[in-house]
Here is the input.
Amino acid sequence: MTNTYGFIGLGNIGAPMARHLIDWPDGLMVFDLRSEALEPFVEAGATAATSVSEVGTQCSVISLMVLNDGQVRDVCSQIFANASAGTVVAIHSTIHPETAVAMAKAGHARGIEVVDAPVSGGFMGAHDASLAVMVGGTEEAFAQVQEPFSRFANLVVHMGPIGSGTKAKLARNLMHFVAFTAAGEAMRLADAAGLTVQDLANVVRHSDSVTGGPGSIILRSSTEPMTTDDDWYETLTHVRELGEKDLVLALELGSDLDVDLPLAKLALNRLGTELGF
Here is the structure.
């Protein structure tokens, strides 16, 4: 084993992440099943591995950005069979938390550390090194990955023990895709109201860039029901009152235009509860 950094999986997110490691002091070794994905890295000075096993043999820290749980298990088994004790394997794929726990247990039996380290920020964040990385694993393993991760991310957070990074990513993406679904509902309402959908999109993108979007409402450190002496009680009371008023108005508009708004109905019913009231 050398101090070469290994990166396996050079897809839409993995490739731009790996490009930020081209100048890693002890070299970068990459592997992908597609030879065309390897070519630009070789031209830039990286070494192309001929197999996953070679990456395991040669590298001290290895990032995986493969598709799913099955691929993670398969790649990890090949790495574990060849890597030296002290190797750190970072799983960036979004998988089931128990898969991360199982891989960490299997790695530990061979003296190999595993962290689950999914990323948020998409292709854009990977391209300009502004990803957020949510890391689950031991303090020792986290210390080993902070420096390389900071090359493709400007936020690297130790979420807790193994599996914590994946749980954080699932919670984050729950918000992401529920918001996407709500965006579709809002588009239907705007379209039925005779508005230009792209004009609405411009307003949403602008205001979210100012306010921070849905994430800006995560203000409390607890999900326990609020009491009146909670520091955020007054603020969130205002948010609830404003939100319920606007949701009622949106639902009335939907009724007038014969547009069903199931998410808006659910939000009106659940807003107070989810805010902590």
